[in-house]
Amino acid sequence: MAAKEDYYELLGVEKGVEADALKKAYRKKAVQFHPDKNPGNKESEEMFKKVSHAYEVLSDPEKRAAYDRYGSAAFDGSGGVPRGPAGGGFHDPRDIFSQVFGQQGGGGGFGDIFGEMFGGADRGGRDGSDLRYDLEITLEEAARGIEKEISFKKLMACERCDGDGAEPGSKRVTCPTCRGAGQVRRSGGIIVFTQTCPTCGGSGQKIEKPCSSCRGEGRVAKNTKLNVKIPAGVDNGSRLRSSGNGEAGTAGGSAGDLYIVLAVKQHELFERQGDDLFCEIPIKFTLATLGGSIEVPTLFGKAALKIPTATQSGTTFRLREKGMPSLRGGRQGDQLVRVQVEVPQSLSAEQRKLLEEFAKISGDAAEPTSKSFFDKAKKFF
Fold this sequence. Notes:
By secondary structure, the chain is of the alpha+beta class. 28% of the residues lie in helices and 26% in strands.
């Protein structure tokens, strides 16, 4: 026969735990395993029942004493041990959940109870706001992908009250103004209208003593750090979503999301055109004339580029798959290289002499070439 699970271990507490700490531990476990937060998950539903049963036993002084002495056998009649006090029966886990979270009654379904706690407008719970963080990265980082640590301030669940808003040891009671309805009716002559209760803000409950740390808000502003993985291929305006890392909700509402909006710095050499990269490089006029091969920079190292004989200034060459990776996992972009032929700005006497001889041999005397061009251009004026 399988051994019974330890109730203290189920709730993650020590044996001598005090009532407030026990309740706080149960709240966390109940929220973690609640069926409405884990729809269709039989294991979570079973764990929810187990932690609720464990809390019911340990929160009752008489049952807890019996459990500490006899273990779970105190409540199943096994091993010749008398059944525990209170008739030996246990409540529906929904009832335990309702009592701990201050709800009235337990006849509703899991969805009714859980919905009231998590963001239900009729019970005052509000989801936390989404946040935006602008992050600047280099083109090299965008090409390779990178992990960045970011730091920002946000509203987080108060540690003192565990986000409940009530001072430890205090509790929530039914709002005296709306009597738990969350709304009040107002009459304006023959017209009767309903509005959110001004006392409880629509929650139907009032805190006996607000938390001294968050003043009943359940949230406090704190600095936090987060590691963000940036995939290769992102571009200006790319937006990354970090679920649940926005501001904490109130009264059990879900946390918002964090959106990281990327800005890629302008590069001194490369210009991005979609997934392609474009750059201009200078080459010697001798290389452009005679042809040859040169090494050109890419974001991933150097690449060889063949320059054909008689290459003209402004010619564009394509280096296949030397551009940006595709975010969608497709073919990597190309790198387009436009060459600009450099003309020497100064010549030695020997260089000048050789070039003049080359010009004579080629028939490239400056004056006839100039004359020929203007003769052709006359028809346009």
